[in-house]
Amino acid sequence: MAIAKAERLMNLALCLLGTRRPLSKRELRDSIEAYVEASGPGRGAASGPGRGAASGPGRGAASGPGRGAAGSDDSFNRMFERDKDDLRELGLVIETVENLDGEVGYLARRDSNRLPPITLDAEEAAALGLAAKVWQQARLAGAASGALQKLRAAGLPEGVDPYEAHGALEPRIPVHEAAFEPLMLACRDRRPVLFEYRKATAARPETRHVEPWALECWRGHWYLAGWDRDRGAERVFRLSRITGKVRSRGTAFTAPVPDVVTVRETVASWAGEIADRSALIRLRSGSGYPLRAKATAVRELGGGWDELEIPYGHGLDAWLVEFGPDVVVLEPAELRADVVDRLRAVAKG
């Protein structure tokens, strides 16, 4: 059976960490089972003493230098270079040393690959405890609790309880959408995804091909920010509008991933938090208190209606639709048209 890549990388890392002197490619090749298998059957026998005659007539070309040996060498070299790069990407410091004979060797010194001890003061421990409580109702609850237990074993200050309640209000981040976990893993592993998405203005969902960047919780709702391949631009998707399963695609990203701060700003903009102009709406008296809280000006019209001036940014149309018949958009015209389109889509089901 072929040895899994993870096991091969672990064996290579153990060899490099366990040696006191640099090991050559040849030594590593003969020490790791996966590399021996990659060399092809019979390589070890062919290189041993006294095995040439036992090969029988007509076998010399197969066991001696030739296309088979060169092919196995090339296969091993490619595999070894990929594995070495993967270990370095994972954080292992691998040194390349050349001896007096000009032969190149490799080793990973323990002092260069040892993490510093973890020390936490009371404030840091309390912050981590608060983070764990935030995720208590989410799918990350087990991972958060396990991480805290490891930190406690690593020297959490005595008398500090990360789970202790410090106030009457306790933060929670609920995650009810089934798409959260596969999207979280896709963001972590940088894997493009495919899912069905229903826009607020559409009666039916449509397929979206997305390179996921990050998940953000904004005003109690989860959003995915990423690169929409079909539209060739960045987009933000509300997880509650994703229908069906999220399927991953084994291809590489085609667009650069921006800094996380930029992603947060993008989510805020799409969620309607960034406004560069004003809108004029008519609101039924005694309703729409969230809109009233944002209003920059309010005027009583009589007949059970008020006129409000509110900040206008991306996503305001979706928010106004939630108030149904209690809101009438007066201006600008494009906002009024967007709200009418959304209401028509809702009426069509």
TrEMBL record:
Residues 41-69 have a biased composition (Gly residues). Residues 36-77 are annotated as: Disordered. Residues 279-347 form the WCX domain. Residues 179-243 form the WYL domain. PROSITE patterns: WYL (PS52050). It comes from the Bacteria. Transmembrane segments: none annotated. This is Helix-turn-helix transcriptional regulator.
